[in-house]
Description:
By secondary structure, the protein is mainly beta. 14% of the residues lie in helices and 42% in strands. It has a single domain (3-173), classed as CATH 2.40.50.180.
Amino acid sequence: MSTMAQHNAHAHQADAAEEGGFSQEYLTFTLGPEEYAIDILKVQEIRGYEPPTTIANAPTFLKGVINLRGTIVPIVDLRIKFNVGTIEYTPFTVVIILNVGKRVVGIVVDGVSDVTSLRSDQVRPAPEFAATVDTRYINGLGTLGERMLIVVDIEKLMLSGEMALVDEAAGSLTH
């Protein structure tokens, strides 16, 4: 993210603090019918979807890799990982390039909505579900008027062992 964008994000946080609550900036995007939010400071850039170079024996959600200005970037389709929506690659499908844990990773989403601020009182804890629903990577549910946003800890998700992006076997994908 550019220095100007970071400055603007910090300025919005300062304004929100004066209004009586700490605010954080989020990039919101859609996966199927649901809307998700991730920390804007983890976002490097947003690109149109281009089919990546596939990797043999990779998990189905790991679509492959792209060469981004000399950096090999693994591309994860969150629609497959979260089992959400129909997996179609349309002109609206985008890749969000992230900086997480000193790594660059791309996530495929149906579309980017906007950048929004959420105060801490607008984010509620994720409800408890049965063992079949994994909520380890959900920070909570954000509410903006009628909108419900699933706030994801994208760094925790991308660096988890199940993503196969940081273990020894997948090390060649991230270097």
